[in-house]
Design a protein that fits this description.
The protein contains six helices and two strands; from the N terminus they run αααββααα. By secondary structure, it is mainly alpha-helical. The chain has a two-stranded antiparallel ribbon. α1 packs across α3 and α1 crosses α4.
């Protein structure tokens, strides 16, 4: 399983908006400049996240985007499922019910189910707020000056 550029950029977009909104809106142009991602590509991702209800938009001079909820309400898994779809490591686990005709005799199904659970548990254990805290810690660590 490999997360696409769209998925990685969606996480960066949500994090950037959370970090820079300050209760207001964040322009896609500003995100583009900070993240080094084209505006056109970000617009595709914004469209997906807006349709999912994760972002709210506003037009005009004070326009832009902001999270619909607080950063701790979104997990990395939530965002990736919008952009990547089901995070299943194998096709037979996609969807509600396993459609594989061999599922009852499959010697590997429990392994794949375990991997699927581990992937989802990990992705759902980290929120956008957690990523914000990690980013702040990294910035704080690099701000120290030592004099000899």
């Amino acid at each position: 399983m490999k997360i696409s550029t769209k998925g990685r950029y969606a996480i960066r977009l949500m994090l950037d908006i959370a970090q820079h909104s300050g209760g207001g809106n964040v322009s896609i142009k500003d995100v583009s400049e900070r993240q080094g991602i084209s505006v056109k590509y970000l617009e595709q991702i914004v469209n997906m996240l807006s349709k999912a209800g994760y972002l709210r938009s506003r037009r005009g001079s004070q326009g832009g985007y902001r999270l619909s909820k607080e950063p701790d309400a979104y997990t990395v898994g939530d965002v990736l499922r919008v952009t990547e779809g089901d995070m299943s490591p194998v096709a037979c686990l996609e969807g509600e019910e396993n459609q594989c005709p061999r599922v009852s005799e499959c010697p590997t199904i429990e392994f794949w189910q375990g991997l699927y659970k581990a992937i989802n548990d990990y992705l759902d254990s980290t929120t956008i707020a957690d990523l914000m805290r990690r980013a702040e810690e990294k910035n704080t660590e690099s701000d120290y000056c030592y004099y000899i």
